[in-house]
Amino acid sequence: MTEGQQTNSASGEGAIIITDDDLEKFCEFLYRKTGIRIESKKRYFLERRLIERVGVMKCANFRDYFSLLHFEDAGRELQQVVNLMTINETYFFREMYQIDCLINSILADVSRRKRRQGDRLKIWSVPCSTGEEPYSIAISLLERWPLVDDFEIEIHDSDIDSSVLERAKVGVYDERALHLLPMMYRQKYFTPRSDGNWQIISDLRGSIDFTLVNISNLSHTWQYRDFDVIFCRNLLIYFDDVSRRQAAEMFYEALSPGGFICLGHSESMSRMSSLFVPRKFADAMVYQKSPQRL
Amino acid sequence: MTLVRPVEPTDISLSPPPPEDMAGLLVDLSDESPPVRRRAAHNLARTGEPQAIAALCARAGVETDETVLETILTMVMGCRGRATVEGLLPYLASDNPSLRNGVADVLRAMPEAIGPHVEEVLSDHDPAVRIMGIGLLAGLPDPRVSGWLVEVIGRDDDFNVCAAAVDVLAEVGEPAALPALKRLPTRFPGVPFLEFAIHTAVSRIGNGEGKRGAP
Q1: Is B16 near chain A, with CB under 8 Å?
Q2: What is the pLDDT of residue B13?
C-alpha cells in the first residue's frame, strides 16, 4: 500500500477507514507497550483486526479507538488487542530435544549447585501459551528425571495473552495437541471428557502458577528472580534488536548464577547479547549465566 | 507429587519499588558490586533524565565488568536521542574492543540521531574512528549517505578508510558516486584488492543494486 492509501472495512456509508499513518502510529504504540514489531507483510492481518475492534468498541472512527487505547486506565482493550496479535500455535512435546536436554544435562548441572535435598528448583516457561510447554516439562520431570523427588520444583508459566492463560489453567486439549504424547502419559496425567478432548489432572494443574506477564514491562517482571531454567522459545523472533537486548537483560536478572535459558531453534542469544555463555550439550545448544556472576 | 506451587504466587499488580533518588543511583553506579551497578543502570535509564544518560555514558568509559557494560549499553540504547549519541561517540576511538563495538551497535540502533554527527566522525584524526563511522552509514536512512561516502573517497588519505567507504557504496551508493569511484584507483595505484572492490561497487551501482530500495 502506498502512502496516503486508506483501508475501508466495507464499501458504503459507515465504513471504518484506517490510513497508513494510523497504522504506523498504532504499530509504534504496540511496540512501546509490548516490544512486538508488526512486519509490513502482516499489515493486512493487523488492519482487519483493528477494524473489528473499532466496531466492537462502538467507536466512531480509528482516532477515537486509538484514543481509548491510550487513555483507558485498566488497559482492558490493550489486552484484547494483544490477544489478537499474538500467535499461539503449539502442542505437547514440541521441540522435545530441549526438554530432553533439560532432563539429560541441564538439571544435572543445576542440581550440583543446590546445597541440599529439598532445595527449591525454579523453572519459568514464557510464553507458555495454552499450557502445552509447561505441562510437557512437568510430565517429563515427573517421569524421567531420577532426582525429581530430591527437590521442590516450582514451574512458573507466563504469557502476555490473558485468553490463552485461562485455557492453560483449564488444561483441556484435543487430539492435535496430544499427537506426540505417549499414550501411557495421556492415561496417567489426563482424564477423558465426553466431548472427546482430554483434561490435565487436577493435581498437575494445581501445581503450576500461571500469570499474565509482558516481558517488556518492568512492572511485570521485577519479581521474577532466582530461576534455574527459563524456557523462552519462539518469542524473541517477534522483537526488534533493542527489545531483544532488553529482554536478554531481564532474563539475566531473573536467573540465578549458573542458570540456563533455552530459546527456539531459530533463535541465538549470541546474536542478541554477550551476557550469556553458549553451552553445547548432546541434545541442544542452550545459554548459561556464568556461575561466578551475581 | 514433587511439583509445588510457588510459595508466594507472583502478583503483577504490585509495582516495582520506586527508583532511589538520583544522587543515590549515581553513587550506586560506581559501587564495587556489579549487581548493584547493573541495578543502578536499570533505574537511571528508567528516569530518562539527561543527567542519568550522561552518567551512564560516562560510566561506560571506565566500566571493567563486561555484564555491567552490556547492561549500560542496552539501557542507553532504549534512550534514543542527542544526549546518548554525544555521550557515546567518543568511545568509537576506545582501545577497548567491547566498548568500541558495543557503542557502534548502540549507534546503529538510533540512525535518526547520528545524522548531525556524521561529518564530525568522518573527519576524526583517527582512521579507526573514520572506519567505524563509515560502518554506521550502511544502515543510515539518510539521502546524504552516498554523498558523504563520495567525499571520503575523494579526500581521505588512508587506504583502509577509502576501502571501507567503497564497500558501503557497493551497498547504498547512488549513480552520482560512479565518477568518484572510477577516479579512486588513481589515488591508490597498484592495489589489486581496491581495484576489485571498486569494480564490484561500480557494477552493483550500474545495475541498480547499490541504492537501498532500488530494484
Answers
A1: yes
A2: 62
